[in-house]
Amino acid sequence: MTQHSRRVLVVEDEEMIANLLLTVIEASGLQVTSCPSVASAMDTLSHATFDAALVDLTLPDGAPDGVIAALREKDVPVIVISGDPDRLGRHPDLPGLSKPFRMKALMAQLESCLAARMPASPP
Fold it and tell me: Where is 17: in which H helix or E strand?
């Protein structure tokens, strides 16, 4: 699978941040699906697959624990993002970024997640 066909799910309710993430991630050649809520993310996950996900920990319809669990069940790497360090601390086993973050740091995390999912090259 080439990077150009890799798919990233962005779960972020703040439209300005979601649009910025979409622009930056798509500029790197990845496909992006954006969801503004837990409900829309769960609906999307019921019929689409992803290679990585960015999940905001503060969403209008509740905590995204179900979204994170569904992604992890499908072995999709998850990066959590939040402006609240306490919320990030509740997910010590996941890579996280504290808002505001630099896009370069985000892309480094995302590339690391995607590289970990790349199939091994045949000998």
Answer: helix 15-27
Residues 13 and 59 sit within 8 Å (Cβ to Cβ): yes
Q: What Cα–Cα distance (Å) separates residue 32 from each residue in 61, 85, 86, 91, 123?
A: 22, 26, 28, 23, 32
Convert the pLDDT of each residue in 88-101 to its tens digit. 999 999 999 999 99
| Residue of 41, 40, 36 lying closest to 12 (CA atoms) | 36
Other Cβ atoms within 10 Å of 14 Cβ, number: 16
Q: What is residue 51's three-state secondary structure? A: coil
Confidence (pTM): 0.90
What structural domains does the chain harbor? 3-117 (3.40.50.2300)
